[in-house]
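_Full entry_
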Amino acid sequence: MNLYLRLAISTLKFIMKRGNKMKIFIYYGNKTEEFSSSKIFVDRLLESLKSDSRFSEVIFRTPSNTNFSHISNWRQVNEFNEERQKISKEMMESDIILLISPVFIHNVSSYMKVFLDNFALWTHVMPLVGKVGVPISISSTNGNEFVNDYLTKIMNYWGILTHKSISITLANKKNEVIESYVRYVLHVVDALTCKNFSADTSTLNLFFENNVNNFKLGHENYEKSIFNELPYGKCETFDQAYELMKNKEWLLSLYFIIFIYSNLVIWVYYDEKIFYEFFHH
């Protein structure tokens, strides 16, 4: 009886504490120089997001506060070390994901590439269905479209429903222009917070259906076991899986509220002390 009471009240406290607040995960693939235009942009964006009461947490990761290794073979991809487990947990617990990369030789930065390589397994199993996000590229003058296309593809492979990518060019830009870029990104984030946010899902459906068909035909393997264990592992299309995950937290909250309400009188009668301790901790 005590175990169920602790679980139920802990869950209810979590639901009450978080409410409708959302989490944002950002990976910025660069080590910025002090006073650089890109640092000014990123700092202002973070400041605005962290002051927004709609978000319970803004997780900001960079090469400076992560420790990812270079990947040279697929065996390393399958070995989720402590660092990957920590960051994957942060992404899976987030609602919105932003990937921001500088443009280097018309490609993502080496830091961003290492980050993506460490989650290469995800491109085969789409574990982030239900998340929304946007890829953002930062250049001096050009090459943004190549980075945006690549980041969009990887985010879709991961299962993220993406807003149209954002291109930022910062050569000789004054602070007023940087501020306008920040405002536009915040406008996009506003759109992503809406429950009725929609975007073209044709590519995502194609990726998802390819996975489903491959796993139906293939022998048992590590990737197939991961996909089948996902809440949407039995879905046939991305659209079905997305709808399932979009409603998952609301249904979970409703279930526990009904569960607690229907049993609360009995629990309090048997263990009033534990009930009191949890709600007054």
User: Anything to note?
Assistant: Residues 264-270 have pLDDT under 50 and may be disordered.
